[in-house]
Design a protein that fits this description.
- With 69 residues, the protein is mainly beta.
- The chain is built from no helices and 6 strands.
- It has a 4-stranded antiparallel beta sheet, with no helix packed on it. A two-stranded antiparallel sheet has the order 1-4.
Length: 69
């Protein structure tokens, strides 16, 4: 869940636990309040821990996520 108020695009990058970028999502438009965005990776992604980073021109938020098939 993102809790951001911005008119700037939000770039979401997903990284493997080893630090390799495995996916990227761009959200455009006005964002106000909490936003839910689900990551639906292809079947070739293994179950495991990933790092998600959401960034705008003024803010970067990073957290761990657990992907379970």
């Amino acid at each position: 869940i993102l809790d951001i108020v911005t008119k700037d695009p939000i770039d979401i990058s997903i990284y493997s636990i080893m630090g390799r970028q495995v996916d990227q999502i761009a959200l455009t438009g006005s964002h106000r309040g909490s936003k839910k965005h689900s990551w639906h990776p292809d079947n070739h992604f293994p179950t495991g821990t990933y790092i998600i980073q959401a960034s705008t021109k003024d803010l970067i938020e990073t957290q761990k996520i657990l992907f379970i098939k």
